[in-house]
Amino acid sequence: MNETPEKVRENEELRKIYEEDVAELTGANWRDSKVLEKIERNCKRRKRRVGEIVSVGELKVGADYHHAALIFQHGDTTVDFKKANELAKKGMDLGEERSKWLYAATYDRWMRSLGKPQKYGTQFKKGKNNMPELAEPIDRSTTDEERAKYNVPPLAEAVEIHKKKYGLK
To answer: Which of 5, 53, 80, 115 has the fewest Cβ atoms surrounding its Cβ within 10 A?
Structure first.
């Protein structure tokens, strides 16, 4: 009798940490310093725990790599952003569709942390009247076709999509 190998499942603890991160950061009042302090503390705590999970080899499927990448994306050092990019790449290589955009975003954040231009146009800063604008410099040689490979919108649409995502007008 042939036995079918058990399907490898995503790491439940990692998924819960990811969901907690997304829930906390979505809709947060970014102008409230107490909220920002709490977010910073929680991001550091989540990153510490995810680092432990990664270090013992508990990432098995693309979703695990995606979840870990997002947590490191919310880190605060060049090392964090590089790690986030490596994790997103692995998630993408394992077929996790969500990791395509995250790969581009982690790359851009990593490059910006090194003082280099972002490639894909995923990083924003506060502009006039606290409205988002693309963070310069941007490598303008990257085409919209290349951005599309990573589910990144054309630069001409990026700011409006960002505003809509965060309920800004």
So the answer is: 5
Extract the tokens encoding 84.
């986030």
d(CA 46, CA 141) in angstroms, rounded, equals: 36
CA angle (108, 46, 135) in 5-degree steps: 20
pLDDT, one tens digit per residue, over 37-70 is: 999 999 999 999 999 999 999 999 999 999 999 9
pTM of the model: 0.88
The residue ranges of every structural domain in the chain are 12-165
Cα separation, 155 vs 147, whole angstroms:
9
The answer to whether the CB of 153 falls within 8 A of the CB of 122 is no
Q: What are phi and psi of 150, to 5 degrees?
A: -110, 20
